Amino acid sequence: MTVLAFCGPIGSDLKAISEQCFSLLTKECTLLDSSEHTSGALLFAIESAPGDVIVFGPEIFLDEKLRLKCDIKVFLELDADLCLSKHLRLVQANKLNVNEHIEYYLNNIQPLNDEIRVSAQFADLRRPQASSNEALVGLLINAQEKTISELKKNCNEFLPRDVFWNSANHQQKTGSGKSSTVSPGSTQVLFV
């Protein structure tokens, strides 16, 4: 059994990419939306599901027990401006004052999204917000076997995580030959 988890800020397209991956699988697989379960119930659903599991939700990586259950963790980046924009489009049908929606977003959703963004450090893969899902789906789904790829196992055998991620305080050479310091707590994505 392989557990593939998608996480990202509220407003990111977690459901769409999860359903896209799920639709490509022929092997028995379960699709779980974390918003439909409490943390304990979601953990139980993952453990008792037959076959592979695809789970998605914004707060999955914040829960250590859930995080440890996931074999492949993918974080979908989305900046705060786009999160606010998507929130306003979703509530547009509701005729409340736009200022009330913005205030609600700033007081409730944005602080949670800031916490969720910190949980990106636990991801095995991070999809930049401007990227297409196609390349990521191609990496995650074995098209020939119609199964979730053995990505986690293969990555660990061939490439250390450091190849893709530089830790904080890492000295990086710039094009001019000068060194620049990466700010503490930051993560760099190196595209190969």
TrEMBL record:
- Enumerate the residue ranges of region (Disordered): 170-192
| GO molecular function term, any single one | kinase activity
Instruction: Keywords in alphabetical order, please.
Output: Kinase, Transferase
Q: What is this protein called?
A: Uridine kinase
